[in-house]
Amino acid sequence: FNGDKTIFFQDLMFYHIDKNEWRIVDSPTTPPPRSSHQMVALPSHATHPNGCVLLFGGEFASVSQSQFYHYRDLWKLDLVANTWLKIEEPKGPSPRSGHRMVNQKHKLIVFGGFHDNLKSCEYFNDTHIFDLDTYHWSKVPIPPNQPVPPARSGHQMMAYNNNIFVFGGYSKVKPDHPPASSSSGKKGNTKPSQKEAAFALTEKGIEHSDLWCLDTTTWRWSQCKTPGFQPSPRSGFSMVCQAPKKRCLFFGGVHDVENDDEFGTSVFYDDLFEFNLETLRWRQLTLRKSKAKGKSRRKRNAPNQTANQSNVHEPDEEDAEMEVDEEEESDNGGDEESSGAHTNVQSQQPIPQQPLPVDVSVEAKPNWPVRRMNCQMAINGNKLFLFGGVLEANEREITLSDLWSIDVNKMDEWHCVIAMDITSQEWIDEKEHSDSDSDSSGRSGSDGSGSDSEGSGDDESDEEESKTVAKKSTTASKPHSRQALKKQLLEQDEYTPRPFEPLKDFFARTGDYWAKQAFDVTQKTGKALRKDGFELAQDRFAEMRATLELIEAEELAAQKEEEERRLEESKHKDKHKSASRR
Q1: Half-sphere exposure of 282 (CA within 13 A, CB side)
Q2: Buried b (16+ CB within 10 A) or exposed e, 247-275
Q3: Measured distance between the N- and C-terminal CA atoms of the chain, rounded to whole angstroms
Q4: What's 115's DSSP letter?
Q5: Alpha-carbon Rg of the chain, whole angstroms?
Q6: Is the pLDDT of residue 150 over 50?
Q7: SS3 of 492, please?
């Protein structure tokens, strides 16, 4: 999307790790262009001896987005012949996109998604099974009064043993309480008021943070309780399973804060999480820091300082991190990998987002992929690959094509394998589009086709207005959106850092909460419990930085504006005093 037109692709591309190159694969038959579909790779089997990839669903829109279409087709790609085959089975799920699909014991499991016909939007919470032996679809029946996850799209699914987990996602629901109506109490008046009619059409976006489990032996859903810390609500995050380590890795995503008007805030993330498929516990993964060996020992063995050399000081953020690192080293018996004793080498590749026309909401960390949603992830051994995605800078939407990798066993550094020049990406903003429309209208009028041009202009203005509303709904720089974020943080104050609050102050304020969370999982006490609690607090602190940076930047800007206003008023008063004396 370049601000004016949307383009959908139907390319099939392979990345060769050894050669570090992308290759486009041609096929005589190819699925139509689409996005938001699902693909699952399957090993060799009697029904597909060469191994295959299965594709289901997705969406397509015309260049102007005036037409929108959802798919319900199922395709199979032979991984040796590189040929596509459409599987004709009419009893499959309804047309949808934003769903998720996994392979479980030679069965495809599809859950959720949404369907939008430009007049109404429906979110799904149904579960469908495609048997890879019989090539038939079936729907999982849900008995009455049985729990089931709320409808959603943009979530993630994980298959492990006999369980399938569903986490997060996005949906829209109607508000719980309709507005009071002056006509509701009048006898015989059944016509809804203007407020009630507007309420019936109003929907509120919700980002889920719940975890559900589907037992494939009974096909019954149950909601899971995750011990301790978990990622904040979001959608559009990416996931890959590392089966030998019994874990899944998650990256990025977006959180939309909606308000009562048309404006909203989009907070993009660049955090990396691990989800343990056995303990159901979350852990944030960060780069392991280099540290000088023996430093702590020298400090312990140093001679006593004199009275003039105080050895007591207020611990800062670095002290807290060093204390935990020292404990880890002693607990792990000096094991290099577990203690994080790796050199954090600066990446030699150029960071691809350096020339990015960004605001504070998308500033990149050094040697770390920029914040994004809907990227693609794959893992080869211990090497994690991350490709592409979408981010928003101001009112501009940027489609990424960079490729990153990291050894998730060492966690020493991200490598930018293939960079991209974001500045070369075309973007047509509202002003340029309006000027273009005005010029074309003027030229049409001069050609003597005034009536046709006028009708066309009305259509273009309607389309332009709808685009303006859509862009405003995702802008990330409105003051009242910050107020909504601050209100949300206030509700989570017990376990959430405050704007401008250092890590040591955050842990001092919330330490009891994190100790309780850690104790529920580890049952440790004393110094070991404090260490575990600090790790949970540190993960939460890092996870909330993106949101806090938005609020802090807005508050700093507001303070600067207020200082300039007071200075201007002071100058005006001084000038007025001088004039009155003359």
Answers
A1: 25
A2: bbbbbbbbbbbbeeeebbbbbbbbbbbbb
A3: 63
A4: E
A5: 28
A6: yes
A7: coil
